[in-house]
Task: structure prediction
Amino acid sequence: MGFELKLSAHVILGIESSCDDTAAAIVSYEKGNSKILSSVVVNQNTLHEKYGGVVPEIAARAHAERVDTVVKEALVGAKLSLLDINLIGVTAGPGLIGGVVAGVMCAKGLAYGANLPLVGVNHLAGHALTPRLIGNLEYPYLILLASGGHCQFVIVESANKFSRLGGTIDDAPGEAFDKTARLLGLEQPGGPSIEREAINGDFKRFDFPRPLLNRDDCDMSFSGLKTAVSRSLEDLDKQQGGLYERDVKDFCAGFQAAISDVLVGKSKRAIIEARKRSSALKTFAIVGGVAANEKIRQNLSSVCSDLEIDFMAPPLELCTDNAAMIAYAAGELYDLGQEDDYSLSPRSRWPLDEKKPPMLGGGKRGAKA
Ligand code: KG4
Ligand code: ZN
Result:
């Protein structure tokens, strides 16, 4: 092996297949000093393109076909073989069930064949623990987890203890980005497409709603935004008989500003609430696919400096789905004593904070966790 393995360190293979990215990664896990040795993510954008969104059956089949090759690529990338691995971590939910089944079956087969311990990981915990993978952040800390299927404020107390302060009552922000991009005829996933167009747009031209912003809690709503964009589009279409490039850019800028204002306003409330609950809490992090948005990162960062709390946002490739976060989370969970057997069951729903009642709504991943 290319590095020295210390006691209490593990070389972990992580597998992720809960939505439309088939991913595998190798992480050298050691408390406070973990390293990503390789990370392979194969997206399915071209397979779903013509349907305008992720088709669960197509996703499941693609995961099943690709997952073993992706694992092999991750091993080759880390210059390791399966014999060098000490632990396998796999996303066991929440997500599109066919995809999760493909990853879990592969992980079980490898764990059985190579006689390795197996840890089933909550995909959301993978996102939630990413700040510790990259920054060795101490517990507790506050996260805004904003992705294609989820949006919630959570105090992360340990690798298996999470307190939800609030979340979306309908769509997730990533889902709103994707739906709006579809309305505007832009490429999927919608987030990066809208962000690119928004750069040269006038965010003041269209005044989109900021739902629930004035309500004194940490809950959010994004479904009305898509309707507002759709109505403005129809109006403009009637007036001028189509859309100019300028219009698309202005729509994108206005939409992105509305999402950002909601996330920023609610983050302020969540930070205040989290500090009331824990004076030890020093950091606010944004995680999940929407955390890749530069404008949203900047705006959240400046809120944090106003409120004098540290801000953290993972590098872009660790915001969107990947298996390094799953491998890392498996390491922490294994250290806490979790080891799953071959009865490990994929779960389509799996809230981080199981004590709280489920949020309303059902997005591309089904009911919100
Ligand atoms: O975390 P993720 O990779 O998958 C889920 O767990 O859902 O998040 C994917 C979501 C997509 O909806 C995508 O449009 C959004 O994250 N996203 C972005 C950006 N990059 C990805 N949203 C806004 N701006 C971005 N740059
Ligand atoms: Zn995700």
About this structure: Residues 159 and 333 are 6 Å apart (CA to CA). Residues 362-369 have pLDDT under 50 and may be disordered.
